[in-house]
Amino acid sequence: MPPSTNQGMMDRIQEVRAVDDVVQHAEAAISGAGNLPRRTMAEERGVSVRIALAEDEPDIRKMFVRLLERLGHEVIFAVSNGAELLDQSLEDNVDIVFVDLDMPVMDGLAAAEEVERKGIPVILVSGHPDSESVVLDEEPIVARITKPASLDSLRMAIEQALSGRE
Question: What is the pTM of this model?
Answer without folding.
Answer: 0.70
